[in-house]
Design a protein that fits this description.
This protein is an alpha+beta fold. It folds into 3 domains: 112 residues; 116 residues, no CATH class; 188 residues, no CATH class. 42% of the residues lie in helices and 9% in strands. The chain contains 24 helices and 10 strands. Strands 1, 2, 3, 4, 5, 6, 7, 8, 9 and 10 form a 10-stranded antiparallel beta sheet that branches. It is globular, with a radius of gyration of 27 Å. Keywords: Cytoplasmic vesicle, Membrane, Synapse. It is found in: Cytoplasmic vesicle membrane; Endomembrane system; Synapse. One of its GO terms (cellular component) is cytoplasmic vesicle membrane.
Length: 583
């Protein structure tokens, strides 16, 4: 169905250009008028001024059925190209089917059955009737950016309700300022229930990132955009830094998403969403870079954006510029997708490196390795998971006489060091020598297909240390082009840690800069039928024998760590390996 886009007499001429209109009768009781149309006919011009059509013959556009068939055939690249190239009119009925289908491909929740949303509404509010009283929004919503995009008061109440239900169903969301604006956009083209299902798909996506859900994710994202901009819009970023020598670029890039969501005209937003719902947040990255370049050019040729006029508030000037951006949606997207060297893999590397650097700096003070409160403490294991781990774990207890609070503190310390996206999932014990025996073969059977894993060792001297291993242990069997098994595998997300008697994290040395540190700095993980190794280069950070009984620890170049226990050699009392549910 198509959402309540048009259909009142004052807009008959505009409405007649639509190919078809499908109105969900069940939604009429919520929306007496189209969602983005003002209640008063006097406001119609103001509310609809952004929707303009060029006269003449419209280009041939691909249909929903064609795109649906391509998705069913797994031809996602073809779908990507179609979405980028087809500029459907803003009032095209295709989006009422297209957007739910695009968002639905990311859905991971098995329980999202018909009627689920309304059951949740009744559970949260006690009724499915829309209250006339204002609804208190969840804490993760940024009240200053609840952008309604011309929704009526009823439409805004529906958006409030959707966001509340999503917060109830997804308690791991602790900070997500863009969630409300995206909800408002969705409601232009679909029913309340469909909008909720779309959002659930975006929030729950595992393959791609769409919506940040914690403060740390939010911070890592804008810093990633800043790092990419320094390389791909070097002239623009240098110009802004030069005209405002006292300005920190961080202040500008912190609001990067609002250049798009709060600045761009609605028809630009809708076309961006066509691509965003399929490709993810990287679409917004690209658009932000184009905005920077366009603004830079305007600053050099238009007195309105002269240095004297913008130097005191470049961030606000950027949003004002976007409101009257001098290019069409098609040209904006064409420029965005013409940027070279901005692959998903490249963006992911910058994101991971930024996240690792941010977390290492927030967890450890310079030089002293003293623990401070982590920025990701808003994502902790559920209380039930904490109980389960404390009951199962023989490494976190250190000594049986320690209070459970000590176990909990160690768990929280370790949790604060994990990559932020991993903290969205709950830990599960995959292997322990206490229950599954001391055999490397059993270790591989129970662990090798899981990614990532957390190895925790408790020695007979009660030292506790381990490693976060970013890749599957099965990769020890992967062969190169010559048919030979690779000696080392893993990524720069891998890190070492010590929990007792000292608490310290030892991240990959590569996060400290772009300098090429050589092959020895990338010896993350190695394994065969006789041993397991983590870290290398002039020593092995952790080495264990095939019986998981004896091991040794040295300094190594990959992590620049000291030996994780004073003696260097150790006897294993307990080895535990944790995975994460749902990854």
């Amino acid at each position: 169905m198509v959402g309540k886009v048009l259909g009142i007499k004052d807009l008959e001429q505009f409405s007649s250009r639509r190919s078809s209109v499908y109105v969900d009768p069940e939604c009429d009781k919520f929306f007496e008028l189209p969602l983005f149309i003002a209640a008063s006919s006097n406001d119609i011009t103001t509310k609809c001024q952004c929707f303009q059509f060029s006269p003449g013959k419209e280009p041939a556009l691909r249909s929903y059925t064609e795109i649906q068939q391509l998705l069913q055939q797994g031809k996602k690249r073809d779908v990507k190209n179609i979405l980028r190239e087809n500029s459907w009119p803003i009032n095209s009925p295709i989006r009422s089917q297209l957007w739910p289908m695009l968002c639905g491909q990311h859905q991971t929740k098995e329980h999202m059955l018909d009627g689920f949303y309304w059951e949740m509404v009744h559970q949260v509010f006690g009724t499915t009737e829309l209250s006339e009283k204002p609804i208190m929004l969840p804490a993760f919503v940024d009240a200053t950016h609840c952008l309604p995009y011309h929704l009526t008061s009823t439409g805004r109440a529906v958006a409030d309700r959707i966001v509340n239900v999503l917060g109830y169903d997804c308690p791991d969301i602790t900070y997500s300022p863009v969630l409300y604006p995206i909800t408002s956009i969705l409601l232009h083209f679909m029913s309340e229930e469909e909008a909720y299902v779309c959002l659930a798909g975006l929030v729950g996506s595992k393959e791609k990132v769409f919506i940040n859900q914690t403060k740390l994710q939010h911070e890592v994202t804008w810093k990633t955009v800043m790092q990419i901009a320094k390389k791909h819009t070097k002239s623009a970023t240098s110009y802004f830094q030069r005209i405002c020598p006292g300005l920190k670029l961080e202040r500008v890039f912190m609001d990067w998403c609002w250049w798009i969501l709060a600045g761009l005209p609605f028809q630009h937003l809708v076309r961006i969403m066509d691509c965003y719902f399929h490709e993810g947040i990287k679409v917004l990255y690209r658009v932000a870079l184009v905005i920077l370049n366009l603004f830079h050019k305007e600053c050099q040729s238009n007195n309105e954006w002269s240095p004297d006029n913008i130097k005191n508030d470049i961030g606000n000037a950027l949003i004002k510029f976007c409101k009257k951006i001098p290019v069409s949606p098609a040209k904006l997207l064409h420029a965005a997708f013409s940027i070279r060297g901005l692959s998903t893999q490249y963006i992911s590397r910058i994101f991971i490196k930024t996240e690792m650097l941010l977390k290492s700096r927030s967890v450890l003070t310079s030089g002293s390795k003293q623990l401070i409160k982590s920025r990701s403490s808003d994502n902790l294991p559920t209380s039930q998971s904490q109980v389960n781990i404390q009951m199962m774990s023989h490494t976190l207890t250190i000594r049986e006489k320690l209070h459970s609070e000590s176990c909990r503190n160690l768990l929280f310390t370790l949790w604060s060091w994990l990559p932020v996206r991993i903290t969205m999932y709950q830990p599960v014990l995959l292997y322990t020598t206490e229950e599954h025996g001391c055999s490397l073969t059993t270790f591989y059977v129970r662990v090798e297909q899981h990614e990532p894993t957390l190895l925790m060792i408790k020695t007979c001297n009660n030292e506790v240390f381990g490693a976060y291993c970013s890749s599957r242990w099965f990769e020890r069997n992967v062969k190169d082009d010559k048919g030979q098994r690779q000696a080392y595998f893993g990524t720069g997300e891998t890190f070492l840690f010590s929990l007792y008697p000292e608490r310290a994290k030892y991240p990959w040395v590569g996060i400290e800069g772009d300098k090429d540190l050589g092959h020895s700095s990338e010896l993350f993980m190695a394994a065969d039928s006789k041993m397991i190794t983590i870290g290398g280069g002039e020593g092995q950070a952790i080495w264990m024998d095939e019986n998981i009984r004896f091991g040794k620890t040295d300094s190594c170049k990959t992590f620049n760590n000291p030996p994780l226990c004073p003696s260097g050699d150790f006897e294993i009392r307990v080895l535990e390996v944790y995975g994460f549910v749902g990854i």
